[in-house]
C-alpha cells in the first residue's frame, strides 16, 4: 500500500504516520526527518539546507525530489510506504507521479488531516520537541507557506479521486481509528 499523509504543520502527520507504519507494516518516509538527520550528521546536503529549514522555509524542489527518489530505491520500500511531508508543492507532486510511473507503481490513498488553524499553532508551540523552527514567528511563516505552496497540492490530487478527509481533532487514538476506517 502506498499512502500520502497530508496536512498543515502541526496537524499530526508524523504521529499518525508512525502508527500507520506499525499497524500496516510499511516504512514511514518523512522528508522533514530525513532533512533533520542530514543536518545532524553535517552532510553536504545538511549544510546547504540548514538555514532554509531553520527559518521555516521550503527546501528547493529539485533537492527534495532527488532525495526522495534515491530513498525510494531502497528495498524496504518495495511493497509500499507512507509518505509524510512530501509532496509539498505542485512541482513535487508532478515529479512524484513520474517516479511512480517509472516503477509502474500507483498511489492508493491520500489522507488529508483537517485541523483548524488556532489549534495548529497551539500544538506546535506546546509540543516541546525543541525544533529550531517551532518559534511563533517561524510557525507563522510555515503556515503562510503552507497556504501558498502546499494547499494547491490538494487540487492536484482531487482530480485523482483518492483523497480521504480525516478529522484531525481529538485524541491520538481516536484520530488513528478514523484513519483505520478510511484505509
Ligand atoms: P512540519 O509539517 O511540522 O512543517 P516537517 O518535518 O514535515 O514538519 O518539515 C519541516 C521542514 O522540513 C519544512 O519546514 C521544510 O523546511 C523542510 N521540508 C520537509 N519536507 C519538505 C518538502 N517536501 N519540500 C520542501 N521542504 C521540505
Tell me what you see in this structure.
- There is one protein chain.
- The protein has helices at residues 13-24, 31-40, 44-54, 61-71, 90-103, 117-126, 136-150, 152-158, 172-182, and strands at 2-6, 28-30, 81-84, 109-114, 163-167.
- With 183 residues, the protein is of the alpha/beta class.
- α1 packs across α9 and α4 (61-71) runs parallel beside α5 (90-103).
- The termini are close together.
- A 5-stranded parallel β-sheet has the order 2-3-1-4-5, with helices on both faces.
- The mean pLDDT is 96.
- It contains 9 helices and 5 strands.
- Helices cover 55% and strands 13% of the residues.
- It binds adenosine-5'-diphosphate.
- Residues 9-10, 13, 31-32, 35, 52-53, 56-59, 64, 85-86, 88, 92, 133, 142 line the site of adenosine-5'-diphosphate.
* Biggest sheet details: 5 strands, parallel
- Approximate shape: globular
Strand content: 5-15%
Helix content: 55-70%
Radius of gyration: 16 Å
CA(first)-CA(last) distance: 10 Å
Mean pLDDT: 96
Number of strands: 5
Poorly predicted runs are none
Strand order, biggest sheet? 2-3-1-4-5
Instruction: Count the DSSP helices.
Output: 9
What molecules are bound to this protein?
adenosine-5'-diphosphate
Order of helices and strands, N to C?
Answer: EHEHHHEHEHHHEH
| Coarse structural class | alpha/beta
Amino acid at each position: 500500500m502506498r499512502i500520502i499523509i497530508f496536512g498543515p504543520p502541526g496537524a499530526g502527520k508524523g504521529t499518525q504516520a508512525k502508527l500507520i507504519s506499525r499497524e500496516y507494516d510499511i516504512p514511514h518516509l518523512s522528508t522533514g526527518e530525513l532533512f533533520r538527520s542530514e543536518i545532524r550528521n553535517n552532510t553536504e546536503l545538511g549544510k546547504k539546507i540548514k538555514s532554509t529549514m531553520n527559518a521555516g522555509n521550503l527546501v528547493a524542489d529539485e533537492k527534495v525530489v532527488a532525495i526522495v527518489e534515491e530513498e525510494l530505491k531502497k528495498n524496504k520500500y518495495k511493497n509500499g510506504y507512507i509518505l509524510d511531508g512530501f509532496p509539498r508543492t505542485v512541482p513535487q507532486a508532478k515529479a512524484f507521479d513520474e517516479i511512480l510511473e517509472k516503477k509502474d507503481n500507483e498511489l492508493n490513498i491520500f489522507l488529508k488531516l483537517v485541523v483548524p488553524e488556532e489549534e495548529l499553532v497551539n500544538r506546535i508551540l506546546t509540543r516541546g520537541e525543541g525544533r529550531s523552527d517551532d518559534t511563533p514567528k517561524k510557525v507563522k511563516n510555515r503556515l503562510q507557506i503552507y497556504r501558498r505552496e502546499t494547499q494547491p497540492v490538494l487540487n492536484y490530487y482531487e482530480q485523482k479521486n483518492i483523497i480521504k478527509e480525516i478529522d484531525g481533532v481529538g485524541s491520538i487514538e481516536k484520530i488513528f481509528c478514523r484513519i483505520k476506517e478510511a484505509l
